[in-house]
C-alpha cells in the first residue's frame, strides 16, 4: 500500500450497510468534514428536474464551460446525496471546466433498481433538452461517477445506446461497481480492505437489487455486447473488490472497438482519494478533471 495512505488506515472510517439509515447519517458526517475548494467564479444552484418522481440536482457552472457531465455519487447505492458529493463535484467542475450536474438519485433498499438509473437517465434527458439554458453544447455531454455512481454511469451509456437516447460524448468510470456476481479474484479475496470489502459489496448489491434479477442495466458487466458505447476512462484501485471487474470491463470495451483509457492506481484502496494530503490522491483527483477536460474539448 502507498505509505502515505497506509498511515491513515487505522483511522479510516468503517461503515456497516446492515442499517442503511445509520450508515447514511455516518456517511453525511464524514462528507461534512471534507473541505470543498473555494470557487468564487463558479455558480452553484440546486434545481429539481421534473420526472416521475422529480429528481434533485445540484448544478456547478464554471465560467466559460462548453461541456457538461452528469455526475453520480458513490455510496453503495445506499448512501449519499448532492450534499455529501459537494466537495467532489466542486473539484470535478473546477478541474475539468465543465458544468457538473450532480444527481440526487433515489437510494436502496427503499428504492431498489431501477429507481436510481431512472432518475439518472431523466437528468441526462433534461440536461440535453436544457443545454442552451446551461450554456453548453448538447454534443458535449458526458456521464461519470465514483463507485456505485460509476456503475450507474456505465448503465446510462448502455441504456442510451439501446434506446437511441441522447448522444453521450464520454463515460468516466471511477472504481465502478459493475458486476453483481462478485466472482472475480478481487471480489472474492478482498475481505478486510479499508472502507470497502467483500461483505460491504454483498450488502450493497443485495440492497440495490432486492428480489429483482440482475440485468445489464443493473450490472453492466452482464451486457453481452459493448459495441457502440462512448469512449471511456476506467480507473481502479489496487486494494478494491471492484478492481478486477473494472479492468475486465475496460478490456471488453476495447475488444468491442471502444476507445478506452485504463488507469490502475497502485497502492490505493477504494475511496482512498478522500485522503487529500496524499500525493497519489492529489494525482487521482486531478486526473479525473483533466480526463473530462480533454474528452469535452474540440
UniProtKB/TrEMBL annotation:
InterPro entries for this protein: AB_hydrolase_3, AB_hydrolase_fold, GDXG_lipolytic_enzyme
Top-level taxon: Bacteria
Keyword DNA-binding part of the UniProt annotation: no
Pfam families: Abhydrolase_3
UniProt GO MF annotations: hydrolase activity
Ranges for domain Alpha/beta hydrolase fold-3: 69-272
Coiled-coil annotated residue ranges, if any: none
Keywords: Hydrolase
Name the UniProt record assigns to this protein: Alpha/beta hydrolase
Amino acid at each position: 500500500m502507498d505509505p502515505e495512505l497506509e498511515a491513515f488506515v487505522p483511522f479510516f472510517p468503517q461503515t456497516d450497510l446492515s442499517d442503511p439509515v445509520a450508515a447514511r447519517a455516518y456517511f453525511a458526517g464524514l462528507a461534512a468534514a471534507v473541505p470543498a475548494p473555494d470557487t468564487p467564479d463558479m455558480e452553484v444552484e440546486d434545481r429539481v428536474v421534473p420526472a416521475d418522481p422529480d429528481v434533485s440536482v445540484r448544478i456547478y457552472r464554471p465560467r466559460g464551460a462548453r461541456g457538461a457531465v452528469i455526475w453520480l455519487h458513490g455510496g453503495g447505492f445506499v448512501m449519499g446525496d448532492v450534499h455529501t458529493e459537494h466537495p467532489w463535484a466542486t473539484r470535478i467542475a473546477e478541474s475539468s471546466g465543465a458544468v457538473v450536474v450532480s444527481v440526487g438519485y433515489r437510494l436502496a433498499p427503499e428504492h431498489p433498481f431501477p429507481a436510481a438509473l431512472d432518475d439518472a437517465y431523466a437528468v441526462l434527458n433534461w440536461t440535453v433538452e436544457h443545454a442552451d439554458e446551461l450554456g453548453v453544447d448538447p454534443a458535449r455531454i458526458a456521464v461519470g461517477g465514483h463507485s456505485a455512481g460509476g456503475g450507474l454511469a456505465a448503465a446510462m451509456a448502455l441504456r442510451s445506446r439501446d434506446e437511441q437516447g441522447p448522444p453521450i460524448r464520454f463515460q468516466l468510470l471511477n472504481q465502478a461497481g459493475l458486476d453483481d456476481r462478485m466472482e472475480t479474484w478481487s471480489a472474492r479475496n478482498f475481505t478486510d480492505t479499508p472502507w470497502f470489502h467483500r461483505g460491504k459489496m454483498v450488502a450493497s448489491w443485495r440492497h440495490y437489487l432486492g428480489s429483482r434479477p440482475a440485468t445489464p442495466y443493473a450490472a453492466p458487466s452482464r451486457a453481452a455486447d459493448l459495441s457502440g458505447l462512448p469512449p471511456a476512462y476506467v480507473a481502479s484501485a489496487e486494494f478494491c473488490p471492484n478492481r478486477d471487474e473494472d479492468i475486465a470491463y475496460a478490456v471488453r470495451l476495447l475488444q468491442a472497438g471502444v476507445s478506452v483509457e485504463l488507469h490502475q492506481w497502485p497502492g490505493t484502496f477504494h475511496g482512498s482519494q478522500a485522503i487529500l494530503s496524499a500525493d497519489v490522491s492529489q494525482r487521482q483527483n486531478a486526473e479525473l478533471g483533466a480526463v473530462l477536460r480533454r474528452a469535452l474539448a474540440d
